[in-house]
Structures are given as C-alpha cells and as structure tokens.
Amino acid sequence: MAFLQRMQEALPSRHEVKRRRWVFVPYDRLNDRTGPLARLKADEAGIILLESERKGRNRPYHKKKVVVVLSNLRHFALEQLARGVAVLYRHGPESYGEQLLRLQREYALPPIQLALPAERELREDLSLAQKDGLRLDYVEDDAWVSTREDWVRVFGEPQRETPRGGGRESGRQYLMERFYRYMRKKTGLLMKNGKFAGGKLSFDEQNRRRYKGEVRVPRRPSFPPDDITREVIDMLSHNGIETIGTFEGFDLPVTAKDCAAYWRFALEQLLPFFGPYEDAMSAEEPMLFHSAISALMNIGRLLPGEVVADVQAAYEDKRVPLASAEGFIRQIIGWREFMRHIHDVTDGFRTLTQNPDPPGNLTANEYSHLLVKERNRAAPDLPAMPSALNAHLPLPPAYWGVRSGMFCLDTAVGQVLEQGWTHHILRLMVLSNLATLCGFSPRELTDWFWVTYVDAYDWVVESNVLGMATFSDGGLTATKPYVSGAAYIHRMSDYCGRCALNPKQATGPGSCPFTALYWRFLERHEKVLGGNQRMLMPYTTLHRKTDQERAALRERAERAVEQLQRGEVVD
Ligand code: SF4
Asked: Residue 236 in contact with residue 63, Cβ under 8 Å?
C-alpha cells in the first residue's frame, strides 16, 4: 500500500488526538531519545511529521540527499506507530510552518512542543507562521553534546556592539582548540585522572599517513532500496521539483535498525584505522576508513553523545587505538559542536561585515553598504555573504561535472555528483582550497556544498565553508586560510600520478596550477595576510622569488583561472 495512504489509515481519532501531547519532530531529529518525545510515554505521545515541497524547491538538492531524508522520515513514522505513538503525517506544497498552523487549527491543538530547530532556515520558517498564529512550545535541543552556556563559558557572550564599522562579530577570533579542550574536560571523554589520555589533547600529527594499500579497506554494508524508498524515488522522479545527481546506487540506511547496524560496522571495522589515514586521499578507495555517518547523525538517526560514548568504550576495550579515538571524538565534540555555535552566535554569518560580490559598477564596499541598508529595511533573510578576501568569481563549470583535466578536482566532483559525499580533506584541500586560491565566490561555493552533499545543513555548511574553508569570515574561525600548493595533494594522495599535469612543475604548460595559484594568492592578499604570524614563512619564501619568477607564476595561475572559468581543460 502506498505510504501516504497507510498514514491516512493510521490517523488517530479526534478523541485520541485530544488525549495525547503533540510534538513536532522535524526532518533532522529522527529519534525518540532526545527532545520532548523522549519525555513522553509512547501511549500518551503524538508526533507531527511533515514533508514540505517548499523546502525541496528552495534549492536543487542532490537526489540521494532528498531520498535519505524522506525515506528515513517515513520509516521513522512507521517505527513510532509500531511502538504506540500516534502520528499525524502530512506531505504538502507549503512550508513547515504553514502546514503546522493548518494542522493546529484543524485539530484545535494546544501549543505544539519541539526542540529548538538546528537549522536557522527552519527557525525562520516557523517564526513566520508564528506571526500568523501558530503556537509553539520550544525546549532546548538536547541532541547536541554542548549547550550555549558551554560556549559562553569558553568565549564569553557574543559581541553586541559594532566595532570600527565592522559587523558585530567581525574582528573576533574563536579557536576550536579552546572549545575542544573544554569539552573534553566537561564530558570526561579520553580523560585519565583528570588529565588527557596519552598526555596530550590532540594526536593530529599522527593522523597524516598516506594510504598505500597496506591495510585492506573493509567492504561497507549496503542497504538497497525497499518499497518505501522506491516510492520516494518514484515521487521525486515525477513531482517536477528540480534535483541534481543520481538515484542510481542509493544504498544508505533508512531504518533505525539499519542505521545502528551501519554504525556498529563503522565502529568495529573502520574506526581502528581511521586515525592514521584520516587525511589521506585515494582514487582506489575514496571513502578509506571514514565512518561517513554524518548524513545519519545530521538527521538525528545517530546521536553524537551516544556515538562518542561507543568510541570511548571501544578505546577502553583496546578495540580502537587512542589516536583514532581522539581524531574521531575531536570531529564530533570539537568541530561539529564548535561549528554549530559559530553559526548560532553569528546568526548564520549575518552579523559579520558583509563584503559580497559587487554587481555592475559598484565597488565591494559600496555594495556592502547597499546590502546592509536593504537588509535592515526589507530583506532580513538575505543569504550571508561575507568575503574578507573579496572573492567574487563565479563557480566554474568543473564543479558541475565539466572535465577540467585536474585529476584531483575531477575525482572529487565526480564522487560528489554520484554519491553526494566526499571525505573532509577533499572538501577542504581540493574543492575549497582551489576555490579560495582562484577567488571563486564563497557564497556560491557554500550553496554548491549545501545542495550536493548528503550531510549539509545550514548550521554546518555555512560555518565550514564561509568560516573555516575559505577565510571569508576574516579569521573568526581559523587563524589562517587553509590553502596549499600541489605539494600537499601530492603528498597525501595517489592522484598526481594519474594526472596529466605535473605537481613538481610550477610554471609553463603542463604544470600543476595549484602551486602557481598559491603564490599568486599570497601576492594578491598580502595586505590582509602579510602580517599574520602563521604566514610568515610562506611570505618570506615569496619575497625571495625574482620578479621574473613571480611574473611566470602569475601568468600560469591566471591562465588556469581563465580556462576553468571558460569550462576548458587546464593544460
Ligand atoms: Fe591535482 Fe595538480 Fe595533482 Fe593534478 S597534479 S592531481 S591538478 S594536485
């Protein structure tokens, strides 16, 4: 039977609706172990689950991303029905807020409970409906490992005043390490007698081995589409909502049981080797030992607190070595929670100085003023467009699958368009590194990551791309830009041997453009970055280069940018 028909038949009676306490569970909180649902007995709880076509029309998401969200949402509905929870399930063209308001009126529901949504976009959607009469009862979202108080304890209250003409948080710096140090102590994870296990906070320097096939990468379990997933795919194939990528090969877990089984596999088989190869890139083994659970964690199927507790237990049982356990835990209670707070305290980067892509004859500064004026007047929800390095070139066709001839870039893009996922080093040191070096628009890059990655939601993608990856926030989240020449990719991957370009040659035809782009980047941004202590060494090396060397590097870099912009093969 079709899923929505099943939901229709499982509708509670009016009497039953009245008897129960109603909770809205959004698409990214699909569990009954956190939020208001966790505090209710199954036979007194009712949940509202919604599919919004408006959300799908906001941007053309990757097909696999929409399937993993909707199929998990539908399976979650059935799982909750099976344990005795009443379910009101709706699919509609309206926003979440509009659908909730309609349901509240239809059933005369009292204020609907929900955990404060993780996505700013959903918070905005609901607050619009609240203006029209929707009544909600928010509680703190305990799916996170940290709270707003934790952030304030480490960094103090977010800045309220505008310093020297900048945005509210402009000029500040938040270091993940400080936050992570605090979180390790707070949670007691990898702590021994009040000290960090192994005598230090981070084992990052042990996590930089290149992969040469010495350890076999275990085969991942596959979860082929069941009837419900096939129905979702069929719906998406016919509803006229624009998507990208492919449904082909969809095999992600969509039930609570399969999500848990996938995590058990990752913990037992992948985590022991995760640490040493965390930063390695391999053409043969694109996923290496990465758990790739972010898509499931970011919809609430796996909970970060439970996942890190499992890793702690595996470390104590000597099933996972310290460097791997620490590297993984740092990603969860360090980076993941840190990024969520950064997004929160900057209101999705809107409180930073906006230095967006200047249209027509306006300078960036003029446009920035215009934008701020417009924002304050009529458009409170324009996307954040900080760009401390004033990068404004459009994202080139290579990011949408047009062959560039740069093996690392084509491999990363191919993987994303097919799977909706690559591991973090391809995101940071190939896709974002190239965009930052070339001066592609950080906003466009952010939107690209947002639609193409199965695990991207506003709180994580804007923080990672506008913040850490492109230095658009001017150093709020990173002490220096994450940029490198060809040497890093050559050292950490097996890509360069398969590339027509030469990583050891910096200028002239056939040279790898990364190196020339790197020096040109330093040259162009010397005013902003020249005084940065962490950039001292590269600037010293740049200053030792002759005028001819610098001119040749500039020429090589500019030719590569032009070729990329025209959608040509870089040669
Ligand atoms: Fe990438 Fe350059 Fe290596 Fe080619 S040679 S794979 S472009 S880093």
From this structure: yes
